[in-house]
Write a structure and sequence with these properties.
It holds the Pfam family PTS_EIIA_1. With 149 residues, this protein is mainly β. The chain is built from two helices and 14 strands; from the N terminus they run ββαββββββββαββββ.
């Protein structure tokens, strides 16, 4: 069992509220989303594991149980071509929950016309595999978002 924690401080809003049909329809996988505070911040690792995919706008950490957790920093932020994002780790690095991964500013993303909402998704999982999914209320970076059985 894996507890997936919030990579950011903000408000959990649930995937259904994400302004992107791929995420809101859980096509990538089940999970939740965080509407981040609008200030410069650092996205942190939501689980202990290995960074298997790393882009300025998104990263995947796979834990010891083989669970891949995607953190996507904003919606359509790939179109920013890395502008405003600073990678703090490398693909293949081992990270601990709470380690800094990407520095960014959600307010700048919003000013660029993109949504700063951040889906946190359990890859290759079923909705039934998740429990205690946070879909409302304030969350701090490192607070539990969901449990993956």
């Amino acid at each position: 069992m894996t507890t997936v924690t919030s990579p950011l401080s903000g408000a959990s809003i649930g995937l259904a509220a994400v302004p992107d049909p791929v995420f809101s329809g859980a096509m990538v996988g089940p999970g939740t989303a965080v509407d981040p505070v609008r200030e410069p911040s650092v996205a942190v690792a939501p689980v202990d594991g290995i960074v298997v995919s790393l882009h300025p706008h998104a990263f995947v950490v796979v834990d010891a149980e083989g669970h891949g957790v995607l953190t996507h920093l904003g919606i359509d932020t790939v179109q920013l071509n890395g502008e405003g994002f600073e990678l703090l780790v490398n693909k293949g690095d081992t990270v601990r929950r709470g380690d800094f991964v990407v520095r960014w500013n959600p307010a700048e993303v919003e000013a660029a016309g993109k949504s700063p909402v951040c889906p946190v998704v359990a890859l290759e999982a079923t909705a039934e595999a998740l429990s205690d999914v946070s879909e409302s209320g304030d969350v701090s970076a490192g607070a539990p978002l969901f449990t993956w059985k």
